[in-house]
Amino acid sequence: MSIRRRVSIxxxxxxxxxxxxxxxxxxxxxxxxPPSPVAFVANLGSANVSPITTSGNSVQTAVPAGxxxxxxxxxxxxxxxxxxxxxxxxxxxxxxxxxxxxxxPITVGASPFGITVCSNSNAYVANTGSGTVSVINTxxxxxxxxxxxxxxxxxxACSPDGSTVYVTKxxxxxxxxxxxQSNEPGTVxxxxxxxxxxxxxxxxxxxxxxxxxxxxxxxxFVTNSGSGTVSVVTRSSGSVIETxxxxxxxxxxxxxxxxxxxxxxxxxxxxxxxxxxxxDQVSSTVDVGSDPEGVAISPDGTTAYVTNSGAGxxxxxxxxxxxxxxTLSVGKxxxxxxxxxx
Length: 342
Fold this sequence. Notes:
Blueprint: H1 3-9, H2 17-20, E1 38-43, E2 48-53, E3 58-59, E4 63-64, E5 69-74, E6 80-85, E7 90-95, E8 100-107, E9 112-117, E10 122-127, E11 132-137, E12 142-148, E13 152-158, E14 164-170, E15 185-192, E16 197-198, E17 202-206, E18 208-213, E19 219-224, E20 229-234, E21 239-245, E22 250-255, E23 261-266, E24 271-276, E25 281-287, E26 292-297, E27 303-308, E28 313-318, E29 323-329, E30 334-340
Antiparallel strand pairs: 1-2, 1-30, 2-3, 2-4, 5-6, 6-7, 7-8, 9-10, 10-11, 11-12, 13-14, 14-15, 15-16, 15-17, 18-19, 19-20, 20-21, 22-23, 23-24, 24-25, 26-27, 27-28, 28-29
């Protein structure tokens, strides 16, 4: 399978704390049932997004998106989710309570992949083809800034405290080569969200893809697809303090709400590694479907949802027993996933 194909189907960045919080509006009436969290799955091959009601793990009618939707991120309020459309160079907004598209697509850079929403409700989009990050003011859905980061930005995440965005970048493509080079050393570029200034690059492993932050924002975890490792980065110094071996072609990562476990999807191994954040070592491995890509965890920390791009399905993992409790059929080539509470 080509590197280009992997990049086209496998950009998944784990959500920061605000995306997983049950933060919908209060319900009126003493007998009203609070809304259930909903997982939104970007189906690259179907050009749509599948909502999954997590209370019963039921797949709802798919919502149309642009061409080649790859990644999903939700507002801190849970009211809307944003989806990157790689081929169109756009971002679509979906009303999470109505499962309907809001307004027109937002034009960003070339080949947008990763997307994250900070606590200030600004969305940051990694444009792989442009070497830039687009900043979307989600109040107006207008581009408030375009940040040059260079290289091939793929994954992106905002720290829970909202102060910093980390962008993963594949190594430079050598002359005469095509596609992104997973065997080249990669970097992480920090962005200060107060002024959108770029900080010094942080060297990690080969082919860095996904990135996520610890609950206290002090540590970042970077999946290195070409190295088969996870780099543990201390944010204060911007240095790698640990390198953890995982499966083959690690893509996405997500932390449990209590911060004790990091989940990593391994595309070519067909597995999910559970890493203890106390030791930064793999504690368990769970077999899932073909080509696992994205991963998101329910707000109560009991369940993980893993997109299997090769199988057109989502594996539901019971975290306490480390078993796949069910497998849900979605669209073609599901990639990104995010959970919000409408």
